[in-house]
Amino acid sequence: IHYAPQWYRTPMIQSTALGIVFFWVFAAYTTIQFYAASTYGPVLAANSVGAVYLTFTISCLFAPSITNKLGCRPVMLIGILGYAALVMSSLVYFLYGDEIGG
User: Fold this and answer.
1) Concatenated DSSP letters for 6-71?
2) Is the CA virtual torsion 85, 86, 91, 92 positive or negative?
3) Is 90 exposed, middle or buried (0-12, 13-18, 19+ CB in 10 A)?
4) Which of 28, 78, 80, 101 is least enclosed, having the fewest CB within 10 Å?
5) pLDDT by residue for the chain (102 residues), tens digit each?
6) 58: Cβ contacts below 8 Å, ≥ 6 apart
């Protein structure tokens, strides 16, 4: 970051960049959540979404201490990787579900 131009380090630009990243992460997650019932069937879709929200609930207990230890950037990356794992597993199931027992 030391080599970044001064305008790039302003709070407005950083907030805008973070907002754009979160917009696309949640857009991908919401799309998967909406299409889960038609792709997985109602029971597996409900279980999948339920598991995600259960993970959110449990991780909220430990997130503050992990954030204090690792810092905000690594923890946000770890959180986004959780969404990416859900999107990728949904894509694999959609493409190869019949071959893997779906």
Assistant:
1) GGGGSHHHHHHHHHHHHHHHHHHHHHHHHHHHHHH-HHHHHHHHHHHHHHHHHHHHHHHHHHHHH-
2) positive
3) buried
4) 101
5) 567 777 777 889 889 988 998 898 788 777 777 877 777 788 888 888 888 889 888 988 998 999 999 998 899 888 888 878 877 887 887 788 767 665
6) none
